[in-house]
Amino acid sequence: MERQKSMEKGLLRKSLSIRERKFPNEEAFLESGLSRKSPREITKKAQNDDGECRVTATVFFSTFVAVSGSFCTGCGAGFSSGAQSGITKDLSLSVAEYSMFGSILTLGGLIGAVFSGKVADVLGRKRTMLFCETFCVTGWLAVALAQDALWLDCGRLLLGIGVGLFSYVIPVYIAEIAPKHVRGSFVFANQLMQNCGIALFFIIGNFLPWRLLALVGFVPCVLHVFCLFFIPESPRWLAKKGRDKECRSALQRLRGSDVDISREANTIRDTIEMSEVDGESRMSELFQRRYAYPLLIGVGLMFLQQLSGSSGVTYYASSLFNKGGFPSAIGTSVIATIMVPKAMLGTIIVDKLGRRTLLMASCAAMGLSALLLSVSYGFESFGILPDLTPIFTCIGVLGHIVAFAMGMGGLPWIIMAEIFPMNVKVSAGTLVTVTNWLFGWIITYTFNFMLEWNASGMFFIFSMVSAFSIVFIYFLVPETKGRSLEEIQALLSNSVQ
Questions:
Q1: Quick one: CA dihedral 162, 166, 168, 172, positive or negative?
Q2: 383 CB contacts (<8 Å, ≥6 apart)?
Q3: 294 vs 425: CA distance, rounded Å
Q4: What digits encode the pLDDT tens for the residues 407-416?
């Protein structure tokens, strides 16, 4: 009799599991029919024990350690603005030479981006972050000890390679370990920490000499290396490599020792097995109809992010303030004071408002700020309203950087980490990251020349790009908040079909 009841119970569980997607709380109903507990008690237990909804201390710590690499990225981005006057004076650099120094970070990022997907796939997410720091540490030391433009550029290039690798692996790692209902906020912390690094260097760059500033950038890289030894590897990467035991161990560590992670582990394993039916896709195989939609979203967002002029505004904020007649030391300090709280606000609301709404709001604010800068520099060139030009310049630069930090800076990386299946994540992620760094290098290298040629026209073009970005997001970018990675990829696959 007991054996028959046990068999009936098992069959009932198996039949109900087929309907799990339609009825996510079915397990609670099953338990309530087979135990003496009330449905309310069982439902509460099911919610608490759902591994995909647990936010543990390990998840928090692992995310914080991962995004510390983004802090190093922010330090590199903010360095060129604060160090510009000191470096050009000490090493007697021309505008062209300093433009090369400033932009070579993005050129290094482009080189790192080319290999980012493959390196992250071969070494794993955790060891790739360690690999990144070898470039960053060497790069900062080379910059700090440089005696001529060649060593300066070599150090900046090495730093860029590390940053380029970071730009892919950090959002991918966080997206693969974070529970789905907070994944957006956790990945957006990537942008938050990058803003913290930029803000720090904007402030201390006003009074620290550039060599000491480079040594300050060296310190968080060393601390990051130490902390990386205490976080788990991505369970999804371990599952992809067939290391199921380690995958379950990492997942258990992330979700908590008292949580049954069997369902999530099985879902990950099943999804990877389905994606591997066609084998690992090469770059040439990426351009197929079934991948066209996610590829258009990923590449399109990165393309528009850079053509909005965001990198140039951040890298050369001091030059923008000086051209508009506003004190650069005050301007960069104000930016540093405001951009971190704004990025924190973005981190909080990204999983409440959703990706689409925040992206469009960010683009609208960036477009208006660029238009204001266009008007400001137009007034400056014709000598109209000279008392208002510095105010317009300050508001425009401040608005552009803050708006970028709230949405367009971090959200394209979140979406990139969400939309591609495991079998194309390497090639697709590499292509998307290369697109970002390629156009970032073009913008940062030509920015100073365009600023000297026609600043008003340049920012008018940037404002039009932001306007087009709103249209692109409205019609093509889907909402991904609250969905698991597997659900997002199924949604995009069905859209193509």
A1: positive
A2: none
A3: 11
A4: 898 889 888 8
